[in-house]
Amino acid sequence: MTTPLLSLQGLTKAYPGVVANDQVSFDIGEGEVHALLGENGAGKSTLVKMIYGLVKPDSGTMLLRGQAFAPPEPRAARADGIAMVFQHFSLFDALNVAENIALGMENPPAMGDLAARIREVSETYGLPLDPYRTVGDLSAGERQRVEIIRCLLQDPKLLIMDEPTSVLTPQEVDILFETLNKLRSEGTSILYISHKLEEIRTLCDHATILRLGKNVGECVPAETSARDMAEMMVGSTLQTPERSGREFGEVALDVSGLSVPSPSEFGTALKNVHMTVRKGEVLGVGGVAGNGQDELLGVLSGEITTAPDAIKFNGQPIGKLGPTARRKLGVLTAPEERLGHAAAPDMSLTENALLTGSVREGLENNGFLKWAETKSFAEKIISAFDVRTPGPENAARSLSGGNLQKFVIGREVLQNPDVLVVNQPTWGVDAAAAASIRQAILDLAAKGTAVICISQDLDELMEISDSFAALNEGRLSAPRTTTGLTVDEIGLMMGGAHGMEVAHV
Amino acid sequence: MDLGEINPVLLVASLMVAATPLLLAAIGELVVEKAGVLNLGVEGMMIVGAISGFAISVETGSPWLGFIAAAIGGAVLSLLFVLLTQFALANQVASGLALTLFGLGFSALMGQSYVGVKPPSMGDIHIPLLSDIPVIGPILFQHDPILYLGIALVAAVWATLKYTRVGLILRAVGENHDAAHALGYKVIKIRILAILFGGACAGLGGAYISLIRVPQWTEGMTAGVGWIALALVVFASWKPWRALLGAYLFGGITVLQLNLQAAGVAIPVEYLAMSPYIITILVLVILSADKSSAPASLGRTFHASH
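The joint structure predicted for all components is written out below.
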C-alpha cells in the first residue's frame, strides 16, 4: 500500500462551549479528489484551517507523506505544498489581480514577470484573467479564478477548496471541474469541501462525512446515492416541504421598467427590470451573488426609492414610498444579512420585533412604545417558529444563525403580509431549520400572499417557487414556470459562463 | 496698504518652512491610515514631540539630538495608543482623542521650566552652486535639513507604498485585515510598526515648530496643526504627493495672509485668517473627486477570531 499524501489522525479542536472537531481521522491519497461533506457547523472549516496552519489542533497528529506535519502558520503550510481557496474570498478589492496574487506568494517575482506568469497559467487552465484589473470590479467567478491561480502558481501538492461552487453558475461549475480534473491528472490532490451532493458525486473519488465535529462515515460518492449521503450528513431522515396545488389571484406587485444605480461603490445597477407577482404565487429570483440581488431587495423594501410608477402594489404606485409606508400597505421584506440589516445585533429580540412590527402590529401609541404588546409579539414569533432561545430579552447576536433566521422570517410572516420579499431565506441554516422556513413561506403563499424569494440556492428555488427568473448583471430574465425547467436552461438564464472557456490541452 | 513690501522670494521660502510641520505629521498619519488604523492623537503626539525635542536640544545644545528625541517622544506616546487599540481592542476614535488630551496636558507639565528659553539653532544648509542661483536658490536650496527630510520622507513613503512588497502588505492589511490574516500576515505587528512610524513623524513635525519655525516653547503651541494634518490625509485621498501639495498650499496661504495682514489689506482679518483652511479644503475636495476611497478596514478593530 502506498503512503497517503496527507494522513489525519485523531484531530481534536475545542472552542469554548463547542467541540469543533472530535477525533477526526482520514487519509488523502496522491492525485485523489477527496470530498469533505457536512452541514454548516459540522466542523469542516475548522478542520481545513488546521491543515492550512491557521488553527492549532488541541490533540492529534497529521502526517504529510509519512513525515510529521504541524504547520505553525499558513506560510509553513504553503511551503510544504498546501494551497487553499477560501469560501469567503480572501481578496483585496482595491488592489489589482497581480497584487492580490503576489500577496499570496512567498517570493513573488517582479510585477512584470508575475503578470506574464499569470497570463500563462490562466490560459493553460482555461481561466482567462487580466492581471491589471482591480479586483473590486470582477464578477464572483472571476474572483475565484484569482484565488485558484494564486494557488496554482505555487505548484501545490494539495489544493483545498472550501465551498468553491456556491458563487458560480452551472456553466462556470463545469469549467471549474474541467480545471480540477486536469489538476488531478497531473497528480495534484484536492480536498473538496461542499454540501452539494450531486457535485461531489460527479467529481470526487472518495468522501468523508462530518457531523457535529465527528467523522461519521466514508463512502465512494459515485456508488452512493445523494439521499444516502444527505442522511449521513444530517443524521436523520429528511422531510421535503409540501406544496399544495393552489390558484393564483390577481396581480399583487407589478414592477415595470425599473432602473436604478447601485448605492454602493462595487454594487450592480438594476437595468430595466420587469416582473409581476400574483396573489398566492411564489416567484423565485436566482442568479449569482452580486448581480443586483441586494439592490432588488432595497428597491422592493423602499430603502432605495424610484419613480412612483415603476413599482405598483394592487395598482397603486409605491415607488416613491419609504419602507415604513410600504409596510403599512402590506409590502414586507426580510433582507439577506441577518446581523446588521435584518436585525440589530446588540438589541434584544423584543426590540428587534418592534423595529419592523410597530406599524402593522400597532406597537406604538403617539410615539410611546407599548412594551408589553411588543414582548408578547416577540414571544409569539419564538413559539410559532421554534426559535431556540432562553427568552425574548436576549440579544439578537446571541442566537445561532439558523435560529435568528427563523426569527427574522417569522417576524415578517406573522404580520400577515400581502407581498413578502425574502433574500436568501435559508442561507447558512441547517437542513431542518431550512425546511421549516421553506414550509412557512409555502403556507403563507397558500393563504394568498404574493412571495418573491431571492436566493442563490437553485434547489431551494426549484422546491418552493412557481415561476423562476434570474438576475444577471442587474437585468432580470423573463420569468418562466418552474415545472419542466432544466438546469441548462437555468444556467443560460443566469448568464451562462460569463465568457469563460474550458481548459485547453 | 503697500503690497510692494511683500518680497515674493522670502514669501515662497517661508511657505516651505510653514508647511513642513504639517507635512511631517500628515505623511506619518497617511501611513497609519493606509494600514487601516485611525489615530486621532496626531495633535497630542506633535506637542509631546515639540517639548521633547525642545528640552533635549536645550539640555544638550544639539538640535539634531533634539529632533531624534522628538521622534522618540512621539513614538513613545503612540505606544500608548498601540496598547489601547491593538491589545486592549479599545475604540480607535476615543483612544485617539484621549491621546491628544493627554499629550497637551503632559507637554505643558514637562515644559514648565522651558518657557522663555531660546533653543540652539540648527542652521540652514546652503547647497553649493544650486543655492547661488538667483530667486530659485534662496527659495529651494537654503533651508534647514529637516525640511529636506520631510520632502524625502514623502518620496520614500510614495515609493514604498507603490513599488515594494512591504508597501503592498501594508496596503493589504489596511484594505482587508481578515484576508491578510488568512494569508498569514501579522496584522497587529504591521499596524504597530505603522503607528510607531506615525508617532515619530508627528513628533518630528512638533519639534520643527518649537525648534525652527517659532523657535521657542509655549503651551499648546502646535495650535491645531495635528487636526489639519488629519484632514489633509483624507482630502489628499491617501496619496503622498497630494498631501505634499495640500501642505504647501496650506502653508503658502497661511504665510500670504499674514503678509497681507501686515501690509494692511482692506479685508477683515478674520476672513484672511480663515482663508488657508477654506482654500486648502476646496482645492483638495476638487482633486479628490476621482475614484479613490479610504482603506476599507480604516478604523475597524481587528481581532483574530480563529
